[in-house]
Design a protein that fits this description.
The protein has 480 residues and is an alpha/beta fold. It is built from 17 helices and 17 strands. Helices cover 45% and strands 16% of the residues. α16 crosses α17. The longest helix has 26 residues.
Length: 480
């Protein structure tokens, strides 16, 4: 029942503040000499180390930054922020008796690469999947270079449960060809805004819920009558009931057309999980993200002032925690409002894929959990991590069957069933290597060739557009 094996963390500032060419920095630079401008950029804007910086400067240009009317206040504010962040991390690490490993600031400087990834996801370019796999691999290798082998080894070697506190998508870091969101039981708390990260880290206690509490599920839907994806999720849920996959669940679907209606529906709901089925979007690096409700873009921040937010929030909408957006994401808004675990999305997502993911989540709750709970309680992070692995398996096999035409339906089904047994029944930590071997046997290729296949095509899968945020390890599901 240990919560985590390690904390990996990196303090950060708002996304747009990393851009040295932004107007607020240009305005300040007009009042600074060249040596002071260089100091500002190297130390506060684009610093790559751990809060320290070095700068080559001539003897006559040496100055005390604390005596400068612009640099002094900026430095002091940043030092106070870092001290508060470090203290918070120290409290959590001491409480759980685990190491806290600090990442260099350089991991936060890959915004341009993330913006390119976001643009490709949003486009309809040919060979979309292959392009993204290449970009994801490049981004992962950049992170590895920034972090360095010794620290990477310290963070991930012999670990199983990891708590990340950072603003970059550490989920995409690939360890031995498998992104960490599938290799480890991972939860992440964004490091900005600071009041939200501190509150989630220090004020969200562990809580045990009986299985029956999880069976009451609310779906809040908002689409125009003629929207082609309006019924994607509802029809899949209806199919799940018809197939007998959702026995025991009480799924309530409510259509809303305004923020006030969301507030009323949540106020009357007593369960612990809500699913939002609607469109989403964001306003770039400076403005808030939103849910599209009743023809309007709804900001969910401070919604706790008017209603109750359940501990588990699932956002089946686009860009609810956009990888190239601001700190003011929809997912962060729900964390601010008291949600313990929020499943968000990094970018626009395919509605069919989202609907399939949700029905598999509901099936996992209805079919898998009652069996698993006979042996021990499960945390919500375990439940979602296992679902992520199953979804990854499906993404890989579907691509090999439908796009590459390398697998037949029978081969697909055989590998899928065997891998699901490894992930669920056996909880085998070596499931990924065995999954690769199963594919290699069907394709009749050796270990090197199968590794090349995964390197070229599967550094990205669609499930990687989802992200688990908050403290899902603090939600414990027990048998009634």
């Amino acid at each position: 029942f240990r919560k985590n094996d390690a904390i990996v963390h990196c303090p950060s500032v708002y996304t747009y503040l990393y851009r040295a060419e932004e107007k607020q920095w240009r305005d300040l630079n007009r009042h600074l000499s060249n040596p002071k401008r260089n100091f500002l950029k190297a130390t506060l804007i684009r610093g790559k180390g751990y809060g320290n910086s070095s700068l080559t400067i001539s003897k006559e240009d040496v100055f005390n930054p604390y005596e400068d009317k612009i640099l002094g206040p900026l430095l002091r504010d940043r030092q106070i922020e870092l001290a508060m962040f470090t203290t918070t991390i120290s409290i959590v690490a001491s409480n759980q008796f685990i190491p806290a490993l600090r990442l260099p600031n350089s991991v936060m400087l890959g915004g341009d690469k993330l913006k390119v990834i976001g643009q490709i996801v949003s486009s309809n370019v040919k060979q979309w999947h292959e392009k993204l796999s290449g970009k994801f691999f490049e981004y992962s290798e950049l992170l590895k270079t920034d972090i360095g082998e010794p620290l990477l080894f310290g963070i991930f070697n012999n670990r199983e449960k990891i708590l990340a506190v950072c603003d970059f998508p550490i989920e995409w870091l690939s360890i031995d060809l498998l992104p960490v969101m599938f290799r480890y039981e991972l939860s992440r708390i964004p490091s900005t805004p600071g009041n939200v990260s501190t509150n989630v880290l220090l004020s969200v206690p562990k809580h045990a819920y009986p299985y029956s509490a999880l069976c009451d599920i609310l779906i809040i839907r908002s689409f125009d009558e003629n929207d082609i994806i309006r019924d994607h999720l509802s029809k899949v849920v209806e199919w799940g009931y018809d197939e007998g996959r959702l026995q025991g669940l009480r799924v309530q679907l409510v259509d809303v057309a305004s923020k006030d209606e969301i507030i009323e529906v949540l106020r009357s709901f007593k369960g612990i999980m809500v699913i939002f089925d609607c469109h989403g979007g964001h306003g770039g690096e400076k403005d808030s993200a939103w849910l599209h409700i009743g023809g309007e873009n709804v900001d969910v921040w401070h919604i706790y002032q008017n209603t109750r937010v359940p501990p588990i929030v699932i956002l089946a909408a686009c860009s609810t925690h956009p990888v190239e957006g601001s700190h003011a994401s929809v997912a962060n808004g729900f964390l601010e409002s008291g949600a313990c675990s929020v499943l968000g999305t990094f970018a626009p997502i395919n509605s069919d894929h989202a609907a399939t993911f949700v029905i598999r989540l509901l099936t996992r709750v209805a079919v898998y959990l009652p069996i698993a709970l006979k042996s021990r309680p499960y945390t919500w992070r375990e439940i979602i991590s296992g679902l992520f692995r199953m979804s990854y398996t499906r993404d890989v096999l579907t691509y090999l069957r439908d796009d590459k035409k390398l697998l037949s339906q029978n081969q697909y089904a055989s590998i899928h069933i065997k891998t699901n047994i490894l992930v669920n029944s056996l909880e085998d930590r070596g499931w990924f290597d065995k999954f690769k071997l199963l594919i290699g046997e069907e394709l009749k290729i050796d270990r090197c060739a199968i590794n090349d296949l995964f390197l070229q095509y599967f550094q990205f899968v669609e499930t990687m557009l989802m992200v688990q945020l908050g403290r899902p390890e603090n939600i414990v599901i027990i048998a009634d």
